[in-house]
Amino acid sequence: MIETKVSQGIISTYFDKMQRNLNLDVAIVGGGPSGIVAAYYLAKEGFKVAIFDRKLSPGGGMWGGAMMFNQIVVQQEAMDIVNDFAITNEKLENDLYTMDSVESTASLLYHAVHAGATIFNCYSVEDVIFKNDVVAGVVVNWTPVLRERLHVDPLNILAKYVVDGTGHDSEICCTVARKNGVKLATDTGGVIGERSLDVQMGEDEVVNGTKEIYPGLFVCGMAASAVSGTPRMGPIFGGMLMSGKKVAELIAAKLRG
Predict the structure, then answer these.
(1) Exposed, middle or buried by CB within 10 Å (0-12, 13-18, 19+), for 13?
(2) Which of 1, 70, 139, 231 is the Cys-Cys partner for 195 at CB 3.0 to 4.6 Å?
């Protein structure tokens, strides 16, 4: 019966996909633009990378543009990345370009998957695997399990490197510092918290703050701003894209040895 075949096909292929991703080169927590860009460039180099995003529709805040006006702005410095993803764009002024936020987000996701990255939606990362003072993987559960506060144990996924791309909340960095009593590579040793909006400084510092924040743990995108205490930047997305590419380059260099 076709009803049974449909269910069998979904179950068997999904669990094959899960088993292929139990031991990763890179686990990216959060499917915002910086995380997706990182996944794309890492997968293109042949590394095994997966994104874990708690929402039904990964993509972070890029879908909504600014105040649900579904247009975004990207500056000239990031246009090579925009072109890698074949996103339609229009020149604005002063080396700024506009593009449709829905097309942009969809194109990032499409190209990341077709480069070889795996995206798991509706997954929440509730903890990390912490071995010998190194972040060595992620602890995952269904998002509805955590939202309903059900006492259901999670699953574990090993990774050579973990990327915190959870945005303003910088959840993974907060968890690592809080649970293990360690110091992060920040001025205070902890998560400082993002400052109020300054577009130019925010764009510059989100890229500067993209780094290995603790052994085995990298940070990118708005999480980098939140951890290092730099300004947010609003609906200009060049810094997000450049941060994602930078973290991919940093991790690729380590993986290549």
Answers:
(1) exposed
(2) 231
CATH class of 23-63+104-256: alpha beta
Who's near 217: CB < 8 A, 6+ residues apart?
128, 135, 161, 162, 163, 164, 172, 173, 176
Token pair listed for 23 = 């031991």
What is the torsional sign of CA 67, 69, 70, 71? negative
Nearest to 228 by CA among 198, 171, 185: 185
Rounded CA separation 63/104 (Å)? 8
Residue 148 tokens, joined: 């309903």
* Whole-prediction pTM: 0.97
Q: For 156-187, what is each residue's pLDDT tens digit?
A: 999 999 999 999 999 999 999 999 999 999 99
Let me know: does 223 contact 204? Beta carbons within 8 Å: no
At 8, the amino acid letter reads Q
Whether 197 and 235 have beta carbons less than 8 Å apart is answered as no
Q: Are 92 and 74 in contact (CB under 8 A)?
A: no
Query: Checking DSSP bridges between strand 118-121 and strand 49-53, what pairing results, if any?
Result: parallel
Distance CA 160, CA 134 (A): 10
Measured CA to CA, the distance from residue 116 to residue 231 in angstroms comes to 33
Tokens 């890179």 correspond to what residue? Answer: 26
